[in-house]
Amino acid sequence: MSTKPRIYERRLQIKHFFDDRETGAKRRTWLEVQLQPPQKTDEGWVNDGRIRVSLGEDRDIKGAFLLNIDEASRLFKTLETIVEDHERMKGELWKR
Predict the structure, then answer these.
(1) pLDDT tens, 39-84?
(2) How confident is the model over 19-31, as a mean pLDDT?
C-alpha cells in the first residue's frame, strides 16, 4: 500500500459572523470543504479520494464528516435540487 500521507486541500470555506446574545461578543461559525485527491498505490491501484466537510465555531472544529465520492455526489445533487426548487418557488411568488 502507498505510504503517501493523506493530504487535504481546502476548496471552500464559508464564514458566518454574528453577535453573541449572552456576551455581546462577535463570534463566527464556519463550514469548510476539503479534498483528498485520488492516489495511486505502489501496486498500481488507484484509490478514490475523499471529501471532508468540517463545521466549527471560532477556531474550534465542532464536527467533521468524511465522505466518499458517492456520498459527496449525492450531497451535491441534493443541494443543487434544493437551490433550484428555492429559485423556482421564489419566481412563482414574484409572479403573484
Answers:
(1) 999 999 999 999 999 999 988 999 999 999 999 999 999 999 999 9
(2) 91
Q: What is the DSSP string of 37-55?
A: --EE-TTS-EE--EEEEEE
- Within 13 Å, how many C-alpha atoms sit on residue 54's CB side? 20
The Cα–Cα gap between 40 and 78 comes to: 30
Say whether 71 sits in a helix, a strand or coil. helix
What are the cell numbers at 74? 449525492
Give, for 31, the enclosing helix (H) or strand (E): strand 26-36
Helix (H) or strand (E) holding 90: helix 69-95
